[in-house]
Design a protein that fits this description.
This protein is mainly beta and 214 residues long. 15% of the residues lie in helices and 52% in strands.
Length: 214
């Protein structure tokens, strides 16, 4: 065997040893099966439960005053959950609760009156809540059927919900938002104070942002 042949053979053996060494560092043999040294983390499920972020959510209401102009207010304390499926864009299993005492119309005197027996009776009925029982796709929105509990009365209602966006925040939390606007007749829930002064129809606008649970 000439010198060049010996050198080529030596290089072949050396390369085989190096490749074998690299392979040994990447895979391990255990019980006859081959496994990677570091298995990838499991993929995040496409469907998950979200918790309402009250700081970035809002509940607004509008009611006519003396037939002259719409007056507005809000609730500042809210909570809830919902399920969102990234693969289909579907929202479901919605629960949403506001604390009646958190009503805010930018007038302490009026807010105290709203918390009293003429309106919300917050000591007797501290929460206003909605729980969905069925959600179906209706064109570009989702129609949520469910129960609205307000002022000691439970009634079935249907609201149209639009998913407004989804994405990760700077802390790698996945967030999804939705919005809905619907009307209720306050007198149907036993809040019938001065219909000659205040409209009986109340428009509610809910904008909610949820953070996905780990």
């Amino acid at each position: 065997m000439d010198t060049r042949t010996k050198r080529a053979g030596a290089w072949s053996v050396g390369a085989a040893v190096v490749v074998a060494g690299l392979a040994a560092g990447i895979v391990g043999i255990s019980g006859g099966s081959i496994a990677t040294a570091a298995d990838p983390a499991p993929a995040l499920a496409e469907k998950g439960e979200y918790v309402i972020d009250a700081v970035h959510s809002s509940v607004l209401f509008e009611i006519m005053h003396m037939g002259v102009a719409p007056n507005h207010g809000r609730f500042n304390d809210m909570s809830g959950t919902f399920t969102y499926d990234e693969s289909t864009g579907a929202i479901s299993d919605i629960t949403f609760t506001v604390k009646a005492e958190s009503v805010d119309t930018n007038s302490k005197q009026r807010d105290d009156h709203l918390r009293g027996p003429d309106f919300f009776s917050v000591k007797e009925f501290p929460e206003i809540s909605f729980t969905s029982t069925k959600v179906t796709k209706a064109g570009d929105v989702f129609r949520a059927e469910g129960t609205l509990d307000f002022h000691g009365v439970s009634k079935s209602i249907s609201v149209d919900i639009r998913v407004t966006g989804t994405g990760k925040d700077p802390w790698n939390n996945l967030r999804t938002g939705f919005t809905t606007e619907f009307k209720v007749d306050r007198t149907a829930y036993g809040v019938d104070y001065r219909p000659d002064v205040l409209g009986t129809e109340v428009t509610l606008t809910v904008s909610a942002e949820g953070v996905r649970k780990p």
